[in-house]
Specification:
Radius of gyration: 25 Å
Number of strands: 28
Oligomer: single chain
Number of helices: 12
Mean pLDDT: 87
Low-confidence stretches: 114-145, 319-324
Largest sheet: 7 strands, antiparallel
Distance between the termini: 10 Å
Amino acid sequence: MAITSLVPLKPGRSLMDWIRLTKSGKDMAGLKGRLIEVTEDELAKHNKKEDCWICIRGFVYNVTPYMEYHPGGEDELMKAAGTDGTDLFDQVHRWVNYESMLKECLVGRMAAKLIGAPKEITSVSEEKKHLNGMLPEKKVLGASSKDLTPSYDWFQTDSLITIVIYTKQKDMNAELVILDCEDKRLRGEIIVDDSSYLLEVDLDQAIQEDMAVNIAEKVGKVEIILKKKDKVHWKILGQPLENHNTFMKRTDRGLFYRKCKLVSKTEVTHDTKLFCLLLPKSTHLRVPTGQHVYLKQIIAGTEVVKPYTPVLPFLPLDFQEPSCHDSAYIYLMIKIYSCGLFTQALDHLQIGDYISVSNPEGSFKKSQVQTSEDLFLLAAGTGFTPMVKLLNFALTEVSCLRTVKLIFFNRTEDDILWRNQLEQLALKDERFEVQFILSQPIRDWVGKQGMISSSLLSEFVKRSRKDSKVLICICGPAPFTEQGVQYLKDLGYSQEEVHPFIA
């Protein structure tokens, strides 16, 4: 996965400054309020920094005025200048709400290419296929994948509706099933590698809030059990919504959000807090180890989205059996920046307020740890957050690991997150070792000092045996991660042995 660095912005070029500019009444698109249809030839003409148009998902934007405000720098935007930048956008930050950020820069739609009229549903029986677990051909990933395409069925009793999804996948588990229901709108997503199957209907009748999900892991069968609000016979499950019964790449789906309630906010360090969010009763969501979610807030009328990796409420010290935390909660460890528009808005949330939380995303697979003998975790600041669940999983469930070492970079002692818990964990489990490294120690620090470097990594990242299978995970600010990945490559570690956490 590519790592995109942030670049220093000029004074007066912050996100808040951009929002103010978009509300100033200035003609950002340069068309005096008109919207036009843009051909490929016309789009290609606007490919310079002083005249830059980009197409994203069929809409063309004049991003010229945004150049100096783009956190990734002008060069990143210019990669898509005068072209369709959808794929590049999805690779770097699919989660950004460009429609909100660039709405005043909208030039118009791309001129459509006629490729033949879509086939219409011509009979009632054909329409019913949508709700009988049969997948419309146009939604299948490809002919070779047709036999592996999930399907579903449903049945009812006087009080229950049971939906059965046949995923045709072995080792199905609760983390691969995401379920939401709000105002009769039921959305169930089943994750299958980098694709997903979606069941999305407007239910025929009202249901109670609490739902149950049962999973037959070995055969890949998922049961969703709904409680009827009224004991009446349902003639149909419901009306299919636009993306119902589809099986496609996850990157082709828009992010789905649900509103979660803030139930607590506790101090971790002088500038970092642990936020506890309560999922709705009618949501089934488990964030897998190594994956992140996106938080969405409306700030000054503009939708702003940022990624965060959920943690545990604390580091478990008893690894006799897997820890079981209440899955109704999501815990986020967030650094509050004094000039950070998003984190300041987060910090001003009151207990009982709501914030939108997305489905999980991320490329990390637990199997990467399960086949390793040595696990090294390189973290800088809140880059520690992906390591929390990873530590818990590794020490609880991976018996082949000989060593687990956390090399934790911070500026000062006061910046170290969960220091006491990490030191207790090192005393409790002989496989685990933690090394704190400070760049700006302010007291009589007897530990290691410095920044990430090749010499420092060669000192602390060593295989326990010559042929040990090793996994090195790294997370922190983009420059830290970039440098760390390069140093590890220079030290002879392969791309398969290094996993950078990037959102």
